[in-house]
Write a structure and sequence with these properties.
2 strands, 2 domains, mainly alpha, about 140 residues, single chain
Length: about 140
């Protein structure tokens, strides 16, 4: 399903004045986030259950801030260890190959989660847990 088809589908299910952070909007954009983007509406309802969305903040973040934010700005000033779990099928965040090409401080680790989307901890929890344990051991073994 391409972007045009996703948008057409969203317009069919969109409610008046619906937020970019609604379950319907998220479901319509599923191909940006998930390896298997043909998930049921019930799945998305369950995922978003009890989450309160502030429409003004969500809409401002996704429409104004995120498109203009430079992720490399001041990245060299990050002093704490950072780990980014990146799925090869995540088309919402910067693609994995783009992250790999960016300059990073020594304490910035990127873990390739293979054929997962934006949520590798849900799509491949075994790989995610194993990679996270390995990273923790590498960074903090002497402190555990």
């Amino acid at each position: 399903m391409n972007d045009i088809q996703r948008r057409e589908n969203y317009l069919k299910i969109k409610k008046p004045n619906e937020s970019l952070g609604s379950v319907n909007a998220y479901e319509a954009d599923a191909a940006r986030y998930w390896k298997d983007f043909n998930l049921s509406h019930d799945f998305f309802e369950c995922l978003w259950k009890d989450i309160q969305v502030d429409d003004d903040i969500i809409n401002h973040f996704f429409s104004d801030l995120l498109p203009t934010y430079n992720v490399t700005d001041k990245i060299d000033q990050i002093l704490v260890p950072v780990v980014l779990f990146a799925g090869q099928l995540d088309f919402d965040s910067a693609p994995l190959m783009q992250w790999n090409a960016l300059p990073k401080p020594a304490n910035f680790t990127i873990i390739d989660c293979g054929e997962t989307g934006h949520w590798p901890q849900l799509e491949n929890p075994t790989l995610f847990a194993s990679a996270f344990r390995s990273w923790l051991k590498e960074k903090y073994d002497d402190k555990l």
